[in-house]
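Friendly challenge for the regulars: who can give me the structure tokens for this chain first? No prize, just bragging rights.
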Amino acid sequence: MTLPRLYYAGAEQYRSATEGSRLGLFFRVLAWVPARSAVPAGSVLFAAALSITALCFFGTFRRIVTYFVVPLHVVNILMVASVFRLRRRLGNTTAGYRTPGYPLVPAVYVLVLALLLVSAIAYNPRDTVIGIAMTATGLPIYLWIRARGRP
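First reply, four minutes later:
Bragging rights claimed.
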């Protein structure tokens, strides 16, 4: 349920910056939300197609987890750890919102995910490192898109 909404948010952000190109068409399809359901249908269909393709390609659910879910923990670690930098830059409160348990709660979350990542690398190092490398291939694509449009 979360992944299609992440696709939708990313597509919505870059849709207008890439309008008129093939990339713009791709983002427009991902950002498609029928008025009747108010669900990001384009992103849901894209996530379903990716999931079916991954299952056919990798063969087992365990390998999908190793190649995709575990490396995404790196992204989650970076995302939650960014709270510390943003707090330093923006001050202790942003728009009147205070995080309960800060800094302990995000620190524990980052620590637990880091331990899960270390455990996955120890259990199945080859596949985990391949999965992390595959995930890292998104960085040049992100930088290319960012250079062409808005961040």
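The chain has a mean pLDDT of 84. Residues 61-90 form the longest helix (30 residues). Your move, everyone else.
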